[in-house]
Design goal:
- The structure is a homodimer of 200-residue chains.
- Chain A folds into two domains: 48 residues, Orthogonal Bundle (Helicase, Ruva Protein, domain 3), CATH 1.10.8; 120 residues, Dna Topoisomerase Vi A Subunit, Chain: A, domain 2, CATH 3.40.1360.
- A four-stranded parallel β-sheet of chain A has the order 4-3-5-6. The first copy, chain A, has a two-stranded antiparallel sheet with strand order 1-2.
- In chain A, 28% of the residues are buried.
- Chain A is α/β, with parallel strands linked by helices and 200 residues long.
- Helix content of chain A is 44%, strand content 13%.
- At the A-B interface, helix 1, helix 2, helix 3, strand 2 and helix 4 of A face helix 1, helix 2, helix 3, strand 2 and helix 4 of B.
Chain lengths: 200, 200
């Protein structure tokens, strides 16, 4: 049976979102209709509010500031020459929540599946290199590559490291070892191996 | 760290949707921003399009027709006095896809967790009873209760059956037994028991 066009439009649009399939999209559409006009209007205008959001021209995190920089890059208390390269915005949020990092970021985007960087990712790296050349005479203090400790993450990290090693005095990765609260008995071999190698 | 208000609004709104938690809502918000203004505008106006959708005053399925009835209830080729009571719209869609049902529907809404019907569910039952009284002198030909074959579904079915048994010549449930393509060896006891009892 054919659903009304407006409902099919919404189902198609929702099914394009990551981790939402056509079945969940259909259920969501019916849920929205069931919640009524007011709710739909609010959601629709909330979404429209996202149009105001800009990407920081330095780290590519989101912001709504008047200038081109996000709250982190615009904060003069943060060290501009220690740069953490992260895959995605939610990783940046988790790292910020630790309150232990006082440098700045570069969001490089999802790990490449083809083993090469996308064109837009290359542009982001390029803009970081140019910034380092202009502001710090070609050498940042430290670049931290903060990718997931998975084989895909390791692979991408090696790629980024090759690109950036000429532009920094020190290049590092997030520490590996036992997660706090974990138990030695249940740690996998790789994790326990890293914990031994990097003991201290 | 504090995200811009417009982004927090969207995250809160998305996290209210069924089966979307705050983490997925955050990821979705960043995804939407990453897709850019055009995409956000389209999604926002697609959602606004849902405002035109109405609920059928007879079966409570969605429609955009000029009158008060949906395509099914407004279709004179469909028997008005055989009524299938379903829990939700997606169940109706699955049943319609079989092409084997020529009656009409009543969408009664999600199974009650408290063991009683919600006020709005009672109103839907009431409107069905009134329709049967007015159009068929108080007796429909058949009412089929098509709820999930789970204990919650069985419980709700018993509730609805009690409410409607005075308003129909026949009351029935969907058949239970082996699903087509299944294997006897792997069928659970309940299913195999039903298949034996309802053999034919």
């Amino acid at each position: 049976m054919q659903l009304p066009q407006s409902v099919r439009n919404v189902i198609e649009a929702l099914a394009q979102l990551p981790s939402i399939g056509p079945r969940q999209a259909t259920r969501l559409a019916f849920y929205l209709i069931g919640r009524g006009k007011n709710y739909i209007q609010t959601l629709s205008s909330d979404l429209k509010g996202l149009e105001k959001v800009k990407l920081c021209e330095r780290c590519f995190f989101i912001h709504e500031n008047a200038g081109a920089l996000c709250d982190i890059c615009g904060n003069s208390a943060r060290k501009p020459d220690i740069i953490m390269v992260v895959e995605k915005e939610t990783d940046l949020l988790s790292l910020e929540n630790t309150g232990k990092f006082t440098g700045r970021y570069l969001i490089i985007g999802g790990n490449s599946k083809t083993g090469t960087l996308e064109e837009w990712q290359k542009l982001r790296l390029q803009s970081l290199k140019q910034f380092i050349e202009k502001e710090f005479a070609g050498q940042a203090q430290e670049i931290i590559i903060a990718f997931n400790p998975t084989s895909a993450g390791d692979f991408s990290a090696a790629l980024i490291e090759k690109e950036l090693k000429g532009f920094t005095k020190k290049i590092s990765r997030l520490g590996r070892g036992l997660p706090t609260g974990g138990e030695i008995e249940f740690a996998d071999d790789e994790t326990l191996g890293s914990a031994l190698e990097r003991r201290g």
